[in-house]
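In response to the reviewer comment on reproducibility (Comment 2.3), we provide here a single inverse folding case reported in full, input and output, so that an independent group could reproduce the run without further information from us. The structure tokens appear first.
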């Protein structure tokens, strides 16, 4: 069962972008964590988290994805916000991002999006580093903006 797609189906019509669905298990204890953002890019409020949790919680009850009990949480993106769409990189232009792509890991400042490439300034590099969006395995903010973006 694809919980990420189920979360998107339940939450996008309500105006939320599903950034991550993470399922973890320690022993018999299982946890489902959903990170959301607003499609209108306004800051995520406590009411947004409550609304998303209520809506997707009902869908999880209907789907019954696990045998036994599990913990369920919905969060705003937080300081280590995942970036995976070109718009995410445009939105957080000039901020430091931790990137893992094509077997390489680095921290760089987002300089822009050009076609299907993200352009970074990386300390120690002689020029900008260009990374194809499709080759990015993981990217997270390494610093938080002074004002909401």
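Designed residues, in position order:
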């Amino acid at each position: 069962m694809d919980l990420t797609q189920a979360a998107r189906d339940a939450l996008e019509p309500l105006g939320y972008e599903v950034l991550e669905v993470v399922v973890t298990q320690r022993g018999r204890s299982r946890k489902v964590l959903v990170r959301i953002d607003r499609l209108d890019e306004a800051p995520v409020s406590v009411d947004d988290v409550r609304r998303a949790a209520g809506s997707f919680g009902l869908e999880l009850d209907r789907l019954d994805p696990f045998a036994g009990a599990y913990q369920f949480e919905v969060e705003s993106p937080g300081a280590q916000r995942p970036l995976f769409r070109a718009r995410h990189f445009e939105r957080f232009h000039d901020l430091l991002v931790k990137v893992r792509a094509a077997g390489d890991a680095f921290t760089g400042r987002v300089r822009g999006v050009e076609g299907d490439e993200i352009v970074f300034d990386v300390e120690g590099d002689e020029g900008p580093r260009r990374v194809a969006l499709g080759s990015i395995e993981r990217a997270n903010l390494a610093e938080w903006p002074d004002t909401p973006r």
